[in-house]
Amino acid sequence: MRYDWTIDEIEALFELPFNDLMFRAQQAHRAHFDANEVQLSTLLSIKTGGCPEDCKYCPQSSRYNTDVESELLMKKEEVMRAARIARDKGASRFCMGAAWREPKGRAFELVLDMIREVKAMGMEACATLGMLTPEQAAKLKEAGLDYYNHNLDTDPEYYREIISTRSYEDRLDTLKHVRAEGMSVCCGGIVGMGETVRNRAGMIAQLARMNPHPESVPINMLVRVEGTPMEDLDDLDNFEFIRTIAVARITMPASHVRLSAGREVMSEEMQALCFLAGANSIFYGEKLLTTGNQDAENDRALFAKLGIRPEERPTPSSRRLASA
Ligand code: SAM
Ligand code: DTB
Ligand code: SF4
């Protein structure tokens, strides 16, 4: 495994002829995974809107006038109902998202409770709650959290154009705290925000130089939401997105690369090319946090056409022992 990728090397991957890039991505994918398996994660926004941060892409920032209303933290019973439905539909991981700069006070304790219950249901638990202190990371670990999602979003240069309320270093610090507790890291970014190929290569370099690599790397296609400063950006060429997935696959060959936001408007053929480029995880269920996603029914139909199987959730150790 390599952890010394330079931006130039990564940019050179982006510039390969498309067929060569796809071939390299398939080689990397098949060396580490069953190429016909895709992991399914279901998202739920447990605390929506009213966020004090100014991320220019985000419909949940209180600074922009979008259709998203600010809501209170959801009740645990409602969250568990959603988790049960996700599990019964075949998701192996349940990801809870909160529109916070950072978790605080009693709300954080309530989220810890939710994590314990998701674990008791036999699912993997993931959360994305903003910046963490080392103490908060320890409490999440103790509650049984498997993955923490915290994205870099873009490279350090372009980051300055996108977010002013927290620094790139703040993000790296949170990731360090998650790692120090032994939780798995879910960390990726957004493509289609007006960045250059060099910025994209810089973002992948940040991720691929982490040792160990993030276990899960979500690649989001920007969802241009009305009312955000990014609503009128131009379409990104689909091949640029597919190339980003392939480059993530080649540089982080043993990580799950997730075809994340933006899938709602992607054709079946586009998604199939993303899987061919090495994507082996998706968000499954009709909603992301506040925006739409493909219906589960469409996903099942596409999987049947492509011969893709959902990845089994890991058997909890207690059950494994009982059946041994
Ligand atoms: N507030 C927490 C934070 O920012 O870390 C957690 C939730 S935040 C919505 C999680 C991630 O969603 C962001 O880092 C960003 O990568 C992604 N995201 C938000 N809005 C998006 C959009 N319009 N299109 C694509 N990805 C988006
Ligand atoms: C990630 O990388 N993408 C997800 C998840 N991690 C939390 C969020 C996508 C959000 C898309 C916009 C919305 O639905 O609000
Ligand atoms: Fe808040 Fe997260 Fe949206 Fe940024 S991405 S505005 S921190 S919810």
Write up what this structure looks like.
With 324 residues, the chain is of the alpha/beta class. The protein contains 12 helices and 10 strands. The protein has helices at residues 7-14, 18-32, 76-88, 105-120, 134-143, 156-162, 168-180, 197-208, 238-251, 268-276, 296-306, 317-323; strands at residues 37-47, 93-98, 124-128, 147-149, 184-186, 189-191, 216-221, 256-259, 281-283, 309-310. Strands 1, 2, 3, 4, 5, 6, 7, 8, 9 and 10 form a 10-stranded parallel β-sheet that branches. Helix 2 crosses helix 9. The longest helix is centred in the middle third of the chain and has 16 residues, at 105-120. The radius of gyration is 19 Å and the shape is globular. The two termini are 33 Å apart. Iron/sulfur cluster is lined by residues 51, 53, 55, 58, 60-61, 99, 101, 130. Residues 43, 59, 97, 128, 149, 151, 188, 218, 220, 223, 260-261, 288-291 line the site of 6-(5-methyl-2-OXO-imidazolidin-4-yl)-hexanoic acid.
* Heterogens: S-adenosylmethionine, 6-(5-methyl-2-OXO-imidazolidin-4-yl)-hexanoic acid, iron/sulfur cluster
Q: What series of H and E elements makes up the topology?
A: HHEHEHEHEHHEEHEHEHEHEH
What oligomeric state is this?
single chain
Largest sheet: 10 strands, parallel
Shape: globular
Strand content: 5-15%
Low-confidence runs (pLDDT<50, min 5 residues)?
318-324
Number of strands: 10
Through-space gap between termini:
33 Å
